Every structure is written in C-alpha cells, then in structure tokens.
TrEMBL record:
Protein name: 3'(2'),5'-bisphosphate nucleotidase
GO biological process: inositol phosphate metabolic process; phosphatidylinositol phosphate biosynthetic process; sulfate assimilation
Species, as recorded: Actinidia chinensis var. chinensis (Chinese soft-hair kiwi)
Molecular function terms, GO-annotated: 3'(2'),5'-bisphosphate nucleotidase activity; metal ion binding
One Pfam short name: Inositol_P
Catalyzed reaction equations: adenosine 3',5'-bisphosphate + H2O = AMP + phosphate; 3'-phosphoadenylyl sulfate + H2O = adenosine 5'-phosphosulfate + phosphate
Binding-site positions, Mg(2+): 77, 144, 147, 318
InterPro entries: DPNP (IPR006239), Inositol_monoP_metal-BS (IPR020583), Inositol_monoP_superfamily (IPR051090), Inositol_monophosphatase-like (IPR000760), Inositol_monophosphatase_CS (IPR020550)
Superkingdom per UniProt: Eukaryota
Keywords per UniProt: Hydrolase, Magnesium, Metal-binding
Cofactor (UniProt): Mg(2+)
NCBIfam families: bisphos_HAL2
Family the entry assigns: Belongs to the inositol monophosphatase superfamily.
Length: 381
C-alpha cells in the first residue's frame, strides 16, 4: 500500500478519537465522583455505560458525515437493545444529551458539528448502524468505543480504539488513552492510588494523567503519539505529534510483561509459569484495556500476553488498532503459534491459536512463543 493513502481517513479518525476521549473523561469524572445508575450489565455480565453508547454514536455520526452514510461500514461493540427498552428512557436521554454536548465541541477538534441537535431516533440510528460484520473484502471501520469498561467504571485505565480494515488488513489504527499516567510505574497502581490519595493530595487529575492518542498507518514503519487535550484548555489544532518506538530491551530479566487485570480474561497461572521458564523476573503489569498495547508501542513495557479461556473468541475491535500501532512502532504481534492475527474473518479473530503475544522485538517474541510450544502440553489451560 502507498504510504500516502488514507490521509483523510487517518486525519478524521485521530480527531474523532480526541473528541471521544474528551467525552469519556467527563463521563468518567461523573461516574467516579457520584455514584450513578448509568452503568448496566450486559448478558455476559460485562458492564456498559453512557460513555460506550455515546462514543459509538459520536464516532458513527462523524464517520458518516465525512465518508457518507451509504459507504461507511462500521463494526463496533455496542447495540441498542438495552437503550431501546421502555424502562431505559432516562438512560437514552442521558446518552442523547451526552452525544449532543460532545458534538457541539467538534469544531474545537476541526470537525463538523450537526446543524441541529440530534433527536433520540438519530442517536439510536447512529449506534445501531455500526452493525457491520466486517470480512475479507472492502473497507470496514472497527470501533471499540470504550475498551476496558471495567477499568473505566473503576476510575482506572481504558481506551478508545478505532481502526480501518481494508481487504482484511488493518491499515489505520488509532488508540486514545485518556488516563495514561505520567510515569510508567503508575500504570500498575493507578486505581489504588486514586482511591488511596485524598483529593487534596491530587491537586488536579491532570498532574497525574498524561493522556495520549496514538496512531499508525500500515507500512509506514512509524507510530505517532499526541498529547490529549484536557478539559477546558484552549485546543490548538493541529495538535503536535511525536514518534514513538518500542523498547530495545531483549534480555528477559530486564523485560516487563503486561496482562489483563481480570483473571477471568486471561490465564494468569499459565503466564506466571511461562514468565518463570523464559526468565522474566519483574512483576507483571496488570492493566485494563488496550493501554497494554500502548505501553508496548511507547516502550514502557516489553511484552503483552493474553490467554483467554478455551472457547472464548477474541473480537477484532479489542485488538485491531493496538496491533497495528505496536507493529509500526517496531514490535511483533502474533498468536501463540507465531502466526499473524487474521482480521479478515468477520467480527472474531477466527483461527486464533490459543492466545496473543505482542513483543517489542523478535528475540523476546521467539523466546515466548518457543516456551509456549514447549510447555503447552504440561499446562492446565
Ligand atoms: N471471558 C473473557 N475472556 C477474554 N476477554 C474477554 C472476556 N470477556 C470479555 N472480554 C473482552 O476483554 C476486553 C477487556 O480486556 P482487558 O485486557 O482489558 O481485560 S481486563 O479488564 O484488564 O481484565 C473486553 O473489552 P470491553 O468490553 O471493551 O471492556 C472484552 O471485549
Ligand atoms: Mg474491548
Ligand atoms: Mg468496549
Ligand atoms: Mg464491553
């Protein structure tokens, strides 16, 4: 692919992820400071919030506006089932007002805003039209409006992830990480620190959070990072960007590995054994969401491993943006058998061999995949 391709798509995607992050930051502040009934449980018991629906509606509206509602195919996580229930009228009103407030700010990010505030049915349409199944042919946007919703409701790490797939390959990846901390060690303790520190010790959340949007275009060998624009600061657009690169560490003893926080989402006893056999000495960095990919891409950690329970099928929106950014920043991402992830088979990463291994470089990656090969049969996964 030509490196100059997709400039308009990337530009709009980066701006809308900034816009979505600003929406999420406001909603998260509200959730954490007041208790709220705006968190619902989905059928699988995972949470969904006003922010998940509002970001999906906002991104969908902007993409349709710029690329034409007839042409745009979006594969995204949320649907409107809960929101359309008669007993969710109050929730829908909050989503609609959140979307309208957010879109009113779009010009600050150099994006169009609607001529009139959106009606309930328009917001529901914007969410429900993101029902594409993707596949091997054509262009498909892939959106996780809030990845790591559990982290989000706990006042911790989460990400907004937007990618573009063309003919089965990820060509653009954009990842917004509003709570990315100033110091990488704080990735591990973010939530605990928030809770343990009194408000007076934390003069403003911004002295704690760096917040960033990362992005990459396939085949460029470059991954970029922009600072997030916080709160009411006057936004100077275009924002500046700096190149990011993976860590150059290839000694396992010096390497840090990331994994999901929840034991239900990845087999932590298996990774513990793997870490021992490869010679990883540091404590695992357990972080919610695709911020784990972000940490690898910016060189704050060296390895990310996720081994979901047998039978769980990984979804493309949980990985597409992060995988491309890590690869373009110089890293290697495969399944546990060493094969590339296949984004061409629809909503799921079909054929994924056991789990996902993302590393800052080939030497560490080879060691991990080799060790999985050697230890799999004796493991209890
Ligand atoms: N059982 C199970 N196994 C593996 N993965 C699952 C499972 N259930 C859900 N999910 C998906 O995992 C996404 C969150 O992954 P994380 O790496 O952030 O996990 S964790 O919250 O840190 O434990 C999460 O993304 P969000 O729903 O966007 O938060 C889910 O898509
Ligand atoms: Mg997700
Ligand atoms: Mg999500
Ligand atoms: Mg979810």
């Amino acid at each position: 692919m030509e490196a100059d391709n997709y400039s308009k798509e990337l530009d709009v995607a980066v701006r809308v992820v900034h816009l979505a992050c600003s929406l999420c930051m406001k909603v998260q502040e509200g959730l954490v400071s007041k208790s709220s009934d705006h968190v619902k449980a989905k059928d699988d018991d995972s949470p969904v919030t006003v922010a998940d629906w509002s970001v999906q509606a906002t991104v969908s509206w902007i993409l349709s506006e710029y690329f034409g509602s007839q042409n745009v195919s979006i594969v995204a996580e949320e649907d409107v089932e809960t929101l359309s229930n008669a007993d969710s009228a109050g929730l829908l009103d909050v989503v609609v007002s959140t979307v309208n407030k957010c879109l009113a700010e779009a010009p600050k990010f150099g994006l169009k805003k609607p001529d009139n505030t959106l009606e309930n049915f328009q917001v529901l349409d914007a969410i429900s039209c993101c029902n594409s199944r993707g596949g091997p042919v054509g262009r498909h946007w892939v959106l996780d409006p809030v990845d790591g919703t559990l982290g989000f409701v706990r006042g911790d790490q989460y990400a907004v992830a937007l990618a573009l797939i063309e003919d089965g390959q990820v060509v653009i990846g954009v990842l917004g990480c509003p709570n990315y901390p100033m110091r990488k060690e704080w990735l591990n303790y973010h939530h605990q620190h928030y809770r343990a520190m009194s408000k007076s010790l934390l003069p403003s959340p911004h002295s704690w959070d760096e917040g960033c949007v990362m992005y990459a275009r396939r085949g460029t060998g470059e991954a970029w990072m922009q600072p997030l624009i916080h709160g009411d600061e006057k936004l100077e657009w275009p924002n500046f960007a700096k190149l990011i690169q993976v860590s150059s560490v290839d000694d396992p003893a010096q390497a840090t590995f990331c994994e999901p926080v929840e034991r239900a989402n990845s087999n932590q006893s298996f990774t513990e054994g793997l870490a021992q056999s490869v010679g990883l000495r540091k404590q695992p960095l357990r972080v919610y969401s695709m911020v784990k990919y972000a940490a690898i891409a910016r060189g704050d950690a060296e390895i990310y491993m996720k081994f979901a329970r047998a039978g769980y099928k990984e979804k493309i929106w949980d990985h597409a943006a992060g995988v491309l950014i890590v690869q373009e920043a110089g890293g290697v991402v495969t399944d546990a058998g060493g094969r590339p992830l296949d984004f061409s088979k629809g909503v799921y990463l079909e054929g994924l061999d056991r789990g996902i291994v993302a590393c800052c470089g080939a030497p560490l990656h080879d060691k991990i995949v080799g060790s999985i090969f050697a230890s799999w049969d004796s493991s209890n996964l």
